Amino acid sequence: MTWRSPLALVRDALRGQRARENELRSLESNLPYEGLEKGKQPNRYFPSNAIKTTKYSLLFFIPMNLYEQFHRLANLYFVGLVILNFIPEVNAFQPEIALIPICVILSLTAMKDAWEDFRRYQSDRKLNNMPCFIYSRKEKQFVERHWKDVRVGDFVKVVCNEIIPADLLLLYTSDPNGVCHIETANLDGETNLKQRTAVSGHPEFEPESFNGILVCEKPNNNLNHFKGYVEKPDKQKVGAGIESLLLRGCTVRNTDHAVGFVVYAGRETKSMLNNSGPRYKRSKLERRLNIDVLFCVILLFTMCLIGALGHYLWLNAMPVVPPYLVPPTSGQLDRPSLTSFYMFFTMIILLQILIPISLYVSIELVKIGQIFFITNDIDLYDEETDSRIQCKALNITEDLGQIEYIFSDKTGTLTENKMVFRRCSIMGTEYPHKENAIRLAVLDEPEAEEEVIFNQHAQPLPTRWSLDSEEANVEDTHGHGSRRRSKVTGNAQSDVAFSSPLETEVVPDGKLFQKISRTSSGSLSHSQKTDAYLDFFLALAICNTVVVSMATTKRRRVSVSPQAKHTNTPLETLSKDSEENFQPSGQTEGVDTTGLQPCSPHPPSLSDEPALTSDNLRYEAESPDEAALVYAAKAYGFTLLSRTPDSVSVRLPSGEVLDFEVLDTLTFDSNRKRMSVLVRHPITKEYVLYTKGYASILTGHGNKKNIATVTQRHLDCYAKEGLRTLCIAKKVVSEAVYKRWSVDRKNAMAAIENRERLVMDTAVQLEKNLTLLGATGIEDRLQENVPDTIQALREAGIKVWVLTGDKPETAVNIGYACGLLEDEDLVINMAAVFQITCTNILDCTLEEVRRYNADPRNVDTTQNMSLVIDGLTLDKALSPDLLDRFVALVKHCRAVLCCRVTPLQKSRVVKVIREKLKVMTLAVGDGANDVNMIQAADIGIGISGQEGMQAVMASDFAISHFKHLKKLLLVHGHWCYTRLANMIIYFFYKNVAYVNLLFWYQFFCGFSATAMIDYWLMIFFNLFFTSVPPIMFGLMDKDISAEMLLGVPELYKTGQGEGDYRFTTFWVSILDAFYQSLVCFFVPYFVYQDSDIDMFTFGTPMNTSALFIILMHLSIEIKSWTVVHWIIMLGSVALYFIVTLAYSAVCVTCNPPSNPYWILQSQMEDPMFYLICILSTVVALLPRYRVCHSLSSVGLKIFNCPEFWGVFVSTF
Amino acid sequence: MVKQESESANRPDNTAFTQQRLPAWQPILSAGIVIPGFVLIGLAFIGIGVALLVTSRSIQVLELDYTGDSNGSPCSSCSQSDIANCKCSLNFTLTTLFQGPVFFYYGLSNYFQNYRRYGASKDDNQLYGDLSSFTSPSSSCSPYNYDSSKKPIVPCGSIANSMFNDTFTLTRTVSGTTNNVTLDGKGIAWWTDYNIKYRNPSVTPLKNAFNGTVKPINWAKPAYELDASDRSNNGFVNQDFLVWMRRAALPNFRKLYRRIDASGDYQKGLPAGNYTIDITYNYPVRAFNGAKKIVFSNVSWMGGSNEFLGIAYLVIGSLCVVMSVVMLIVYAKFKFPDEE
After folding, report:
1. A1168 and B308: CB-CB below 8 Å?
2. Looking at residue A220, what is its pLDDT?
3. Residue in A1148, A630, A966 with CA at minimum distance from that of residue B193
4. Do B160 and B283 lie in a common domain?
5. Residue A806 annotated in ligand binding
6. Burial, A495: exposed, middle or buried (Cβ in 10 Å; 0-12, 13-18, 19+)?
7. What residue in A sits closest to B301 (Cα-Cα)?
8. Among A87, A883, B2, B31, which has the highest number of CB atoms less than 10 A from its own CB?
9. How many Cβ atoms are within 10 Å of A85's Cβ, its own excluded?
């Protein structure tokens, strides 16, 4: 590197800073500058691709870690104490000794941090050294380099199944259509393939010939958004959006290779910007805990004040200087007031452990353990996806035991979000698809539930069902029987790979199928090309973003090989042969006559791609609704064969393959609530727009009035059945209109400012005056055990709310299905258009509730009330003047269903309930629309389902099924809460009990802050002898067995509200600690008074009996003893004796003011020592033992002690 | 279960520990266990209590206050003056045999040997015989580490300086003749103090080790001349010094002064008769409202006389028995549900 003046360096640094901060970046290729020094590189200001997620460096670990740790208040308290100890007037111990506790705690934390950082370092190094291909101008080809060598402006080649090293702008792919598929599982967990298109679209791309400048926005963390354009030398701008960006961390699939231009590298990539690490929340218990720590501080100050005051009085009572008062070097005693002032601080040092600093470390350890147990629970493990429960927030486990309100999403949370096409309505005629319903009903039966696999290949479906729906029942029994047979005869040598679950199969409606086949059996598509039925199914097949992948394409997927899922039950494996047996032979007779012959599943292939037979097609849909529609279209013979950005091929029932040119795709957004695809019909050459979307939007534009109304009626009927509805519409666009529109569209796409709005405007512009074709009803089935879980949660005193974007009818239906609403419930339906109506409803209902409760006849019975409210009304109810009334009403409701709510409303509801009622809330959801709600609640739970991972990313815990909530809350929540609450209370007790021994001694040593226990032993006592048992208690105690907790959900109520950890419990424990320390101090005192006992011999039985009392106290609290308990408890006692004996034997002059030499040994030869220890322990523990166990022997043993102490005290 | 490992790599281990299903024992104490348990514990405690009380009662203790704060008492003249080696004597009469072995204690009241700064005011290394600490005593001894002429004080510190310096001789008068009761001063300190914790520097004669140092301000004689009669009882391993250096836990304490030598007439203890204690009164206590006393006591396995422990055991034991009786009555009346 050549020498550069410092000024130039500074200037360069400033320029770099500006370049990075700029809203827009201009990037050019590095290739012309290859081999030049760094100062000449155009993109030198942007970070390289090497990442560093470590917090510390090896050299500066200690100072940086200390700096980090001293940010905690607790550690500062420690440092303050150490500093006090170094002031000669104040010190209580040798200054060095005061350093021990803080050193131990700091080094423990530092060790933990270092280990975590080392793991991060290792994974960084692994990532940085991953191989990748970078284009080199010298070698005229892509050469292998490491990830860390990638720089902004490089050209990187990625090949199939490789992970993308940086954010690349896709310039070229091996695919002739310029498409590259990526899987974003690493980034957001979504496993469906996403399609990305190359920007420039030159088929022959040479990196060296790239001479444009890429202008792009500043890096941000939005994974679904990118703005930029490539400016060619001729000033032509080509827009580039997220659809051309390959994100770091994604995997290339189904594409041989692709070349991209590095836009963002290293820490500026979207995946790194999204990687914010685990989140920290403060739990309710911790907030309570801090108040109690404050009480401890007050207690400490009071005790120190008493000490200082006592010292003052004691000194003042001295007529002359006695021989035992040591004057300072000056020879003159200080004034008593000054010495007492010093004494106050000395007392703080002496009694410091009253503030349980080690409690914070212990809580952290216990929570790590609790998370270990939760994540290792096999009941919360999902076989199907091979996923455990994930704990993302590390420190709110105990909040799980205090939940009072659950806010749940419906779709994908209560339901499976596996969509099944159920019914449709075309041009005002309803096709109920009874056959399909029957088939699904069969599927629901328990024996069929065991995930039967159907091979798509061998199913000429239409043939086996009678077309007469009256005969359906007969068919059903028949079909059912034969199914069972096939299961039994199924043999293992099947090749069922790439079969899909039965749910995706649709049995066509007889009448509809007939109709379709009649239409298509004629000289199809030429004569009757405008037939609405054809259009309807074409729309289903085309209007989506489903990606077709070949069964033959290898995908590295860990989890979803269907074969592996089912190996555990031999019955389930169905062979191809048995599939064929499945068709009852007699069934086909009647079918032949209906003219279904042309509709063979294996038509003579007209296309030149013989591989594309329908049996090895696999649809990758972003939303399950789309997949359901495509499968439905397929069932009627409209098979989506392939999709590229520019074309869609559909095979018609006649076997003819139509290649539609796709002119544009107007993607779904929540404002328009619809999506459209603009295609050019291959035969008629018309520009056709197919649109699907939510009913309310589409019907407004409906063409013929009567069809619209009839369809609307059908839609209402579907919604009542709990189906999700979609409307399908089309529009023929004239060429002139299209030309004009496409110019607008292009401009909008290339815009940087206001791009979203412009793009949306163009979409809305086109989606006008649509012709309604029909509607579909898709069923979303309830997840396993949902009613059972809701029932249990309800018994546990948790109120369950459902917030959904669906229609009220759908939501109510699901509400009944999952047991949220019951038949005898009083369901209040709130749907008000005006504010005033809303007010009236609220007032009337509240009045009624009041009257009902006031009625003496209704003392014992409470009417179960449920509320159904829609989004519009909710908005009014949440307005400031109605809010209180609304909250008052919902307090009386057993269940609340909010329909048609937006994500923002969801979070609003959660916030309102949380703040107004001061309750613990939990929100559970699976989709992006639940993210707000999940973040607003005390605990957010994400369900890793079909709708991607955004909810999971935002959540504190991620589960795979709603039913897991039951064990998570009722068992783990309860355990985590009671364990931690009891441990914290015990910790306070322990410290107070031990410290008070020293405090009582002050009354007998002139308040001079003398300790009668060796300092080292005192420190050991807290750090080693009595630290492990409470942690074990917090980790492993089981007050109630899991079976009991699941069987009697009411037990969960102990944690709600104030729970176990309440004011009285805390103070009862503190009082108990005072009592016990009094006993522990005064038994030896009365025994040894007026004797020749020396100080440390006097302290030894106290220390020993304090150990016994503290450990025995814990044993009273422990509800179930395992081997681990015994080992740790006995181990602690053994450790005490071994360490103390060894220390007393070794330390002759090591610890000057105190001299523990041979003291425990001599005490242990003395029978009095044992008599004192026994008496102190028994007397100290007798009250607690009596109360706890007389209560527990009365049969209340399922409840725990501290609570009854509270009751016990409050009754007197 | 035949499972391919890769298919369920995330599957948690199904062990008793991770699933929190370790075999556990739940201490459910039914009345059937608790009541007999309490009776047994109660009876055991009563037994121990009785034994302790009987033993404690059998111990004879004789306490004689000689502070001299009231005018009639023998040492009142000494207590009022500041004369060194002021002599006074105390008479007492034993009507029965004082069972041996008899221990001779001196006791101090309102004397805070447990005062924190007082306790720190010594130099363990010096007392361990470390000669370098002779010339430069630890600062913890301050202000008793150097005298006014900057000479190091050995042994330094407040504890040593304030050493108790009254001396006693015990005489018995039998039919007019007075003879000394031999007092045994050997082994009154802790064995570990005498042999391990405290050491004289290995310099002979001992006096040379103390060259260049001065005796503590309040001391009459330097450390190497503490016991003229026994050369091995000098320096830091002087028994009286060792006893004093072991600080008392409470402000009212006694310290062992001598044992009555169990030989001749005194084989069985102190026989009945008239005794006189001649006191060399040096230690001032009246200034801080202290008191001095002489205590004779014999010891048992439980040390000195103490009724507290016996009574406490009796009370707790009876409480247990009473509680179990109450529980029995309640139990008999109501039949707890979990007893079925």
Report:
1. no
2. 84
3. A1148
4. yes
5. yes
6. exposed
7. A1167
8. B31
9. 22
Shared domain check, B236 and B136: yes
Q: Dihedrals φ, ψ of B9, to 5°?
A: -60, -30
| Residue B313, domain member (yes or no) | yes
Q: For residue range A796-826, what is the model confidence (pLDDT) as tens digits? A: 999 999 998 877 877 888 888 888 888 777 8
- CB contacts under 8 A, A 325-344 vs B, are 325-331
**Chains A, B: CB pairs < 8 Å:** 249
- Among the listed residues A409, A535, A664, A1014, the single catalytic one is A409
Look at residue B124 and tell me if it is in a domain.
yes
Point out the residue among A1038, A1094, A1099 whose CB comes nearest to the CB of B248. Answer: A1094
For residues B230 and B209, state if they share a domain.
Answer: yes
pTM for the full predicted model: 0.79
Segment 960-979 of chain A within 8 Å of chain B by CB:
975
Q: Which helix (H) or strand (E) holds A444?
A: helix A434-444
Give the percent of chain B with pLDDT over 90: 44
Across the interface, whether the CB atoms of B312 and A1083 are under 8 A apart is answered yes
Number of domains composing chain B: 2
Of A349-358, A516-525, A1159-1168, B222-231, the range with the lowest mean pLDDT is: A516-525
A561 neighbourhood in chain B, CB within 8 Å: 7
Binned at pLDDT 50, 70 and 90, residue A457 comes out as very low
DSSP letters spanning B280-333: EE----GGGT-EEEEEEEE-BTTBS--HHHHHHHHHHHHHHHHHHHHHHHHHHH
- B141 in any annotated domain: yes
Among A327-341, A621-635, B242-256, B310-324, whose mean pLDDT is lowest? A327-341
**What rounded mean pLDDT belongs to chain A?**
78
Q: Taking residues B248-266, what's their average pLDDT? A: 91
Which residues of A fall within a CB distance of 8 Å from B192?
A: 1157-1158, 1162
Q: Which of B138, B294, B309 to mutate to test the interface with A (most CBs of A within 10 A)?
A: B309
Res. A603: pLDDT tops 50: no
pLDDT band at A278 (very low <50, low <70, confident <90, very high): low
Same domain flag for B313 and B234? no
State the pLDDT at residue A441: 66
Confidence of residue A599 (pLDDT cuts 50, 70, 90): very low
Strand partners, A169: A245, A261
- Is A906 annotated for ligand binding? yes
Q: In this structure, is residue B265 part of a structural domain?
A: no
Structure tokens at A969: 């809350």
* Long-range contacts of A1191-1195, Cβ-Cβ distance < 8 Å, separation of 24 or more: A1192/B28, A1192/B29, A1193/B29, A1193/B30, A1193/B31, A1193/B34, A1193/B336, A1193/B338, A1194/B336, A1194/B337, A1194/B338, A1195/B336, A1195/B337, A1195/B338
Same domain, B75 and B125: yes
CA–CA min distance B322, chain A (Å)? 13
- Chain B: nearest CA to A602, how far in angstroms? 35
Q: What is the pLDDT of residues B278-300, one digit of tens each?
A: 999 999 888 888 899 999 998 88
Q: What are the φ/ψ torsions at residue A685 (nearest 5 degrees)?
A: 60, 20
Structure tokens given for A827? 């369901």
Question: Does one domain contain both B243 and B308?
Answer: no
- For residue B192, the enclosing domain spans 68-96+109-252+273-290
A409 part of the active site:
yes
Question: Within this chain, do residues B194 and B160 fall inside the same structural domain, yes or no?
Answer: yes
Confidence of residue A946 (pLDDT cuts 50, 70, 90): low
- Whether B113 and chain A come into contact, CB under 8 Å, resolves to yes
**Under an 8 A CB cutoff, do B10 and A1091 touch?**
no
Q: For residue A421, what are its two tokens?
A: 């096409």
Q: Tell whether B228 and B319 lie within a shared domain.
A: no
Contact (CB<8Å) B112/A324: yes
Nearest to B250 among A376, A561, A1004 (CB): A1004
User: Which of A556, A1008, A1039, A1094 has the highest number of chain B CBs within 10 A, making it the mutation to test binding with B?
Assistant: A1094
